[in-house]
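User: For a reading group we're discussing how well predicted structures match intuition. Take Glycosyl transferase. Before you show the prediction, I'll give you the sequence so everyone sees exactly what went in.
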Amino acid sequence: MNDVFGYIAYGDNKVYHFGALLSALKLLDNCPGARIIVATDRPELFRRYPIETITITADQKEVMSFGWRYHFGIKARCLIEILKQADRLLFMDTDMYPVGNISRSFERIAPRQSIMRLCEGPHAWCPRLEGKDVRIGDYVLTGHEPMWNSGILGVHRDNLAALIDAYPPMIAVHEIAKIDAAEQFCIGIALSQNGRAISPHRLPIRNYNTRGKKAFAGPRVLQFFQTHGDAPMAEQIRRAGRYRLWRNPLDVWRQRHRQSP
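Assistant: Thanks. Here is the predicted 3D structure of Glycosyl transferase, as structure tokens, for the group to look at:
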């Protein structure tokens, strides 16, 4: 099987790009020989690493984002492009990173079985979609569907058509429901139709996707490459595998102390 780990990094925030790179190095430490593809508008940042890239141009970003009306459309379209190069894909957001061997996840990815980060259940905004005739493929949204979080996504190439079906209605969901999560909402529904199912990932993956975690991890991501970016590749991978991005209790206390009046 052609198993691929994927990331998507675009925009002006360096932490997104270097976060993807550091996560990929941690992945290589835990899963030597892993095939990694990053869709990015900064391919030069990844060029010296054992990582493949798909270049996203400014014109492509404009089209993918529905004319800049919904920027998460870029993520949705890039997922499709990465999956075209894989039999089984395990995607992680740039603020996700492995702390163990996650290659066993591919055994759980099949034509009728996908993996996503977690099920968040129906949200308060979902009923806004009822009666609006928004369709994902042949399925008409009821406004009562649960939403799966797409920070982690494991999907089989046989579900490429489902991801393609999920893309066009994202702009309608975004504009009707007034939410940024239209991308993951539509993908979760598409991967749940016609006898398909989704399960939570249950993998050794940590994240820094909250404000406090980002405030701690973001500077450390950039510091890693300032300190070790010129080191030989094997050393960078080894150091990345042991590099801490999570907060210990003292770190949390210091953050709260700095924020206190």
